[in-house]
Every structure is written in C-alpha cells, then in structure tokens.
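Assemble and predict.
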Amino acid sequence: MDSILEFIVGRYNYWLYILLMMIGLYAMISKNNLTKKIVGMNIFQTAIILFYISIGFKKGGTIPILEHTSHAVEVSHFVNPLPHVLMLTAIVVSVSTFGVALALAIMIYREHGTLEEDEILKCLEQ
Amino acid sequence: MSGTMTYHFSVILVTFGLLLSFITYAMTWIKRSLCLPFAVLSIGFLSYCSFSLFILVIERGPFEYYLGGWPPPIGIAYYIDELNAFLSLLVYLVALINLLCNRERFLEKQGDRIGGTMALYILFITGLNGILLTADLFNLYVLLEIASLTGYALLAIGDKRQAPFASLNYVFLGTIGACFYLLGVGYLYIKTGSLNMQDVSRLITQIPKSPTILSGFIFILIGIWIKMGLFPFHIWLPRAYTNTFGPISSLIAPLGTKVMAYVIFRVILFVFGKEFSFEIYSLGHVATLFGVAAILYGAITALRQTDLRRMLCFVVITEIGYIVAGLGVGNINAIRGSLLHLLNDVAMTFCLFLSADHLIVNTGTKIEELKGVFQKTPFGSSIYVLASLSVIGIPPSPGFFGKWYLLQGSLEAQNFWVFGAILLSSLLNTVLFFRTFEEGYYHHTESPSYGPKKTSLSAYGGILASGLLVVLMGLLAHPIVGHIVDPFLLRARLP
Amino acid sequence: MRYLYLLLVVLSASVLFYATLDFPQWGDPNSPASLHVSPVYLQRSLEDTSVPNVVTSVLADYRGYDTMFETTVIFTAGLACFVLLRVFAPKMKDTYYRHIQSGVVLHIKGQTTLLDGSRDFERIDSRWVPADIILKTISRFLIPFIQLFALYVVAHGHHSPGGGFQGGVILGASIILLSISFDLRTGLEKIHERGLGLFSATGVFIYTGIGALCLILGKEFLNYGVLSKILPVDPVMARSLGIFGVEVGVAITVMAVMVSIYNYVSSEGRLDEGL
C-alpha cells in the first residue's frame, strides 16, 4: 500500500499534466465554438510544457545560474537547463499558433458573422 | 568555391532561405514592386545551392555538419545523405517551377501583400528543407512548426468563404499532431537524455522493452501520420487543399505530405531501428493495415467526387497509402518501392496539380465543366494526361516503377492484402482518370470558345517543365534506385 | 458523438498513464535526462562561453540553431497575421472629431484629415468611450519604467533569468499598453506599421546575419568563437558577445511582432480603430 502511495505521490506532476492535456484535447475535439477550441489548443500545449519542465527538475536543485568564482560545478545542485530551453521554444510556438489561429478566426467571423462551427457548416453547404 | 566551402551548402540552403525571406518581406515596406522578382531570384539561388549539395553528396558520400561547431549530443547536427539531398533538390525545383509558372496570378491575387506572401512561400520550403536535413529530434519539431505555420497561412489564401475555416481545422489537427510528436520526443528524452537521432538510437537499443519508449514511438508515429494525412487522420486534407488558391495547392499538396512521409522513414529506420519497430513490436501489421485502408478509401472516395481538385486530394491520400503500406510489408523491395514512390510522387503530384489548376482556370472547378477542355487548351491537357497516366502506373512512367517494386516486395512477403490493394486501386484510378479524359476529350460544349484563356509564356513553360520532370524521373528510375535509395537502405541495415 | 470523443480522450490518457509507469521519480537527480547530456552544459558553460546563466548559453549557443528558428516562428506569426488580415482599403467611411473643451463631437461624412493638426479638436473612434484619466496618467508614468526594465532584462540575460524573448515581450507590452489606454492611433504614431514590419525583419536578420558572419569568417554557422577575428577579444568572450548580439536581435523581432499582431488582430487588419 505504501509503495503504491509513494508511486502516486512521487509522480504527481506527471498525473497533473495528463489531466491538463486531456482537458485541452477534449475541448479541442468536442467543442462547437471555435474560440473555445482555440483556448483548448492552448491548454493542450501548456500541458506539454508542464511535462517537460517536470523532467528537468531535481530535488534540492536551484536555478541553473552559476557563480563566476566556483570552478567545480556540482551538477546535482542545479536543475537540468535543457528542458527549459526546449520549452522556451514550445512557448513561442504556442503563442505563434495562437496568433495565427486568432487571425483565421477573425477572417471566418468577417465572412460568416459567427464562430459556431455548426452554423458555419450550415452556411457552407448552401 | 573551395572544397570546405561546399560543405557549408548544407546550412546555406536553409539559413539563406531565411535571410532571403526576411529581405523579401522587408521590401514590402521599401519598394513593393521588387518583392516578386527578388523572391524568384532567391529561390533560383537556393535551387542552385541545393544542386551543388546534391552533386557533392553523390561525389563524396554522406557527411555531418555541426552547427555552432558543437559535436552532437551537445549541439545540433545536420546529416546529409543522397536521399535527403535529392529530395531537397526536388523541393526547390518544384517551388521554383511553381512560382515561375504562377507569377502573374500571385500578383493579381495578393496585390499589396505580395511581399508577405512570397516571404511565407520561401519560409515554407525552407522549413521543409530543414526537416529533411536535420539529425536532431527537437530541431525537427521547430522546423515542422515553421512549415506548418506558413502552411496554415498560405492555405487560408483562396476562396474567402471556405479556405479560412478549412485552414483553422487544419490548425487544430496539425497542432495535435505536432504536440504528439513533441510529447513522443519528450518520452524519448526522459529515458535517454539525448535529442540527437543517432545517440537516441544507440541508447534505445539498451532499453527496448520500456513502456515509455513504446509510448513515445506511438505518439511520434501518430503525430507524423496526422501531418502526412494518412487515412483515419486525413480529415483536414481534402478540405484544406481543395479550397485554397490554385498555385498554393500545387505547392503544398506535393511537398507537405511527402516530406512528412520521409520523416517516417527517417524516424523508424534511423532512430528506433528495424529490430525495435519490426521485430520487438509489430509495426509491420499496423502500417499494412493503415496503408491498405488508406489505399482503398482514397481510391473509392475519389470516384465519388465531383470537384476536380478534391478528387486529386483523394488521389494524394491513396499515394500516401502506398508509401505506408510498403513500409508495413517491411522487406527490402517493398521499402525500396515505397521510397522510390515517395520521390516520384513529388514530381507526379506536382505535375498533376499544376496542370489541373491550368484546366480549372480555363473551365471551372467541377469535373463536368471540363467538357471540351482538350480542344480549348490542348497543351495543358496533354500534360495533365501525362501526369495521370503516371499516377495510374503505365509502364515507362515513374509511377510504374514504384508500384512494380511494391508489388514485387509484397509478393515476396506473401502479403496479398497489399498486393491486391495496389492492383485494385490502380484499376480504380484508371476509371477515375479516364472519366475526366472522357469529359475533356469527347464531350464538346455547344459554343466552344477556341483557344485557352490568356496564359503567359512562362506559365506554359512551367507546365512543360513539370511534365519534363515526370518524364525524367521515369527515365532515371534505375539510377535513382541504385545511387539514392539503395545506399539509404544499406545504412539502415536492411539486407 | 460526445461519448466517442470521451472514449478518444480516455484512450489517449491510458497511453499516457502507461508511459508514466516507467518514469523515474519526479525530481530524481539520477534520472537519465539529468545524467547524459545536461551535466556537460552545467560544467562547461562558464569556460566555453563565460555565461553564468546556463539556460542562456544553451539557448543561444549550444542549441542556438533551434533558437534562430524559434525567432523565425515568431516572425512567421507576424507575417501570417499581415498576409491574412491586412486590408489596405479602410472600411471606415466617416471621421469623428471631438472638441476638447466642450465635448461636442463632429461627425464628418467621408474620410478627411481636415482637423488633424488642430489643438482644439482630437480625432476619436466611432465607438468612443471617454478614456479614464487615472488610466491615462498611470500608464504615461509607467511606460518608461516598463521599457527600461525590458532593456535591463535583455541586457542582463547572461547573469539572471531573462534574455531576448522575455525582454522583447515586456517591451512590446509597453507599447500595447499605450495603444490600449489611449487608442490604436496613439500607438501607431509612436511606431508605425512600416517601422514594425522593418523591425521584425531586422531582428531575425541580425540573428541569422551573425550566424552567416561566422560562416564567412571560415567556421561553422553560428560558431561565435570565430568572431574574435574581428572583435578585440578572445574566443570565449567572443562567444559571450555573440550571444548578446543574437539576444538583441531576438528582442527586436519579438517586440515588433507582438505589437503588430495586436494591431492587426484588434483592428481586423484595417489599422484605423482599435479596441
């Protein structure tokens, strides 16, 4: 029992990202309103950022900024910098995708006057 | 150029693409009329670089390029071999011909925004090239996003009612695809600690049975499959490619999906390896299933279409099915066939979309509107016939050779599902294309307006060049297999 | 249909759970990710690049090539908004002027710049609401400090959390704050569309240009060490300076693109009236 509890508690970040990701995925595939879908997309991408940052964490580690004086760096004192770098890229990508999606939503609204998917589809079939 | 300088062509190809696209956009705000000629010159220059790189690789064999001077696992590396150098040359050729052919139409459609559009155009092909050349899993993701973002923006140009909606749908699915890929890379990273393809592949062989690696494999595959439009994940494809502006569809339809198909081969054969994918886990069965489903679905659904370009989109889905089915069969002949088909398909689909676009401009988007088009524009239609015969697989055409190897491979593996699906779909494609020929050739409109609409000489030149590309790929099928595909398979340790 | 979606979500979640079974403990300093490549960065950052902030050195040097494309992604987003939304013919037909002293609004049919230079009249949006005096005054006070802080974040990225992206976003936010608290025209007067377009291209051009300069000087792309040939410093310092150069480029692009996305999206691409 203790080992199961330890297993669950020891990985709680990972459970959270799964939850967040599924919320995003569900919003993206099932919502009717395009704005909600775009928001879902953003949640989905944020979940992956949480996942990567969790990979980089070390217990007792601090931010990876060294001091000029110290010569021998004790690696376990600093968190892993690589996932942070990768996620900076992912954040930028998610912002950019968000921008392009908004621009497309504006174009759609300009043409159809609505952002509800079923109404747009009805409009397109005519 | 000195010997060392030529190695730099690999990076010049991608980074100068970026530089030139920035200048093209900046010119919007300085002198707008120069944007288009500058874009043409840029792509011309990049094609030249790509050609020199290809010659270099053929002469001296594959090589690595360390960006920033940091050797790989620490830094990012490029790995250039015959196959990706050739594919990159094809990408640039297609982009150049397409732009030369449709210069006036771009200018007419985009007007003052031409600089931005051209910058997106160059960024798109640059992104695809980066995807081809890189040997780093995360770098591939970033470039994938560049190619996707530019793709979303370009596809939204076109029919105002339909195109933005289709493109936004593609944004959602494309983002799911890219995020799944990123998640898969994260799973590989958490178990191996590396992002370089070669390094990851070395580390995976030590922990082949880990559930994390398996999930990473699944997510990377699904991510790329969404991006390449394989059957159950293809829902974004027909709508996005049908409603966009013609010259954009003839750029993205042949290139986008095929480059992602190349990524599948790269990832399966060089990151996970043959043992992991085919022997420990049965990728073969899954890929065969998806491939056969895609072939049959594409071939049958295409018959139901009334819109010419939409019909061609389903032909693209069928072609993707061939490539994946060949991978699923898994023996050397089948994979050789599917790689050859991938290369040929770039030329064939391009020629098909370009000439079909020419027909659409002259008549209308519906198939029944094609009546009498062969009289109206005999030249464009004959290139269309050439491309469609090649897609069907008439012997001296490039499509034939790819299918031949695929059939041979599936017979050797006793995989009659793939064998049957290829034969059946070829038959269905024959019916499909002859229906359009019939409309175009035999039916005459009551008041035939002879002669095509005003089409510039360069447009004819472009269509002719795309036809020549198809013919060349057919004539050179043997050397392509010998010098480009086989070395790749040899390095993947396929017997 | 909804159950199908739920099924899909549960299916993906179960694959994710399955993958997690094999994960190392959260925060485990001996996980493979912490042992294979990343220690090299921590150990060598100072001697290789003389940058104490390892995130910055990995971002702009060891994996600088990724970051170049990342900046390009930002540039692409701005470009996409321009191509998709920009309408050069303004849709707004009428012009509105407000007499500042009396508050009387003149509604002029058609486009005009008749009273633009006038001291007694100000041009207003068609859906004008009186701007709050507190908001205006506070943002007028704050904006210079925000911009100063942004420059600090860019310049101090070597030694503290920060760098081009963060600084650029703060800089862009200050201009967006101006556009929100006054109106879009005020923001555009400070930095107009042409300037934003050129800035966004210049920033990425600086990044790629520094990379290409290294190529011309005879080393690999983005190998800043070779810059010591033209700068009066040793290769390690040259790397540090190269990183700073690209960070400045990143900041310029991010600033310009953030502001131009705001401009295009808030005015639906007409750049006449904002929020």
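Residues 283-495 of chain B form one domain.
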